[in-house]
Amino acid sequence: MAPNILxxxxxxxxxxxxxxxxxxxxxxxHGYLSISLVGAGICPGAIAMDVREGPLAAAKVHIAExxxxxxxxVRLSDGLAECWPGEADTLVCAGMGGRLxxxxx
Length: 105
Fold this sequence. Notes:
Number of helices: 4
Strand order of the largest sheet: 3-2-1-4
Distance between the termini: 31 Å
Number of domains: 1
Oligomer: single chain
CATH architecture: 3-Layer(aba) Sandwich
Largest sheet: 4 strands, parallel
CATH class: Alpha Beta
Structural class: alpha/beta
Radius of gyration: 12 Å
């Protein structure tokens, strides 16, 4: 994984994730956060979720390019609708408006 794949904003989020935690990234867009954290060995696995099929398709391509398909699951989901208790230890919900994040949480 290229060390500069994350924007400054995404790197700030990545720096807050506790090593060893399983990640769920709501609104994953391109999947870079999950790819970076799993690829660096910080997270053993991740669930990358988005409500839109286009970003999920891009995330799948990026995940496949890095060979992390066995460690990052991609799900079409409106917020946390497709995330189940016990699947993750850390939730990232970023890059959307405050009201939308409030509705998701």
